[in-house]
């Protein structure tokens, strides 16, 4: 009975073409809505992961900070290397500085590091210094600064430090000329125009640090959220370990909120498309009232009638979900494999559209779509089973 009615009512009826058109629109609406939702979630998740990778590299998984200037010494570093031999450490000195070349000025943050250690934990620095290693008063600049200043390799740049030095009757900012030997590109213009690196011993001389004193330690960890707990338990007073996710918590919270809002808004497309399922089934019920009444009078149960129309709605919506899933996955593959959309790399961190569809997102999309289709099919099916046999046959 259910199969017979399903195929009968799904066939095109020339006398009522609008019913078939409404069913087709419902099918296409669900398909397009699901496809758009899958692609949008893949793009959002791709941008999340891309920014996370960039921030992970330039912010370091874990950073140990000291509340006191130069509050970390070589003994602290050696002790941590012994106790946490699975981690990679790069102690550093940092200071705010202004890069000057000609009449141009650019403010930023200058790190003094041991480049052999830094290459072990920072892939951007390692790639930039594949052919050279700065020593003495040589500097590694971000590509943003180098391009703005139109610098050529081995040109001199002047660094102005906030530390004051006596100059006649007034105090003057400390200035030192550095030899520009290489540049790095992190993919994020905010870092490429703000960060620069030089030898830790050279910067220590400028800032007046004792040998073996540092402001902090950059640490690479494969499992930073667990290691940070153990590190904080073994640090000296006045020192604290912070994770990259703590330093950028507001940024990722905003991305997550935007992702959820987009999911809800795009799910409304499927909800609107499901209204066509309701209207299509209700029109079928109203058009077939006499047939339904006859079937009930001949012994068909209400549950069979309800199931017939419910399955009809599920077939329309379910086929739309399957087709939309195929289109969505194909769209994710197509946009992720070919440079169909080109992005400004200095804004988005990548010139290629990042596509990364998480299984959890896909599961949420499918569960939400299936729930909407099931709810949309239930009301018309219940309406069909409640047809009044005597009134319908007497009047029609």
TrEMBL record:
Transmembrane segment boundaries: 20-44, 261-286, 309-336, 357-379
Main localisation: membrane
Localization per record: Cell membrane
Protein topology in the membrane: Multi-pass membrane protein
Keyword terms, alphabetized: Cell membrane, Membrane, Transmembrane, Transmembrane helix
InterPro entries, sorted: ABC3_permease_C (IPR003838), Lipoprotein-release_system (IPR051447)
Domain of life: Bacteria
Pfam families: FtsX (PF02687)
Keyword Transmembrane: yes
ABC3 transporter permease C-terminal domain residues: 264-387
Keyword Cell membrane assigned: yes
PANTHER family in alphabetical order: LIPOPROTEIN-RELEASING SYSTEM TRANSMEMBRANE PROTEIN LOLE (PTHR30489:SF0)
Family: Belongs to the ABC-4 integral membrane protein family. LolC/E subfamily.
Protein name: ABC transporter permease
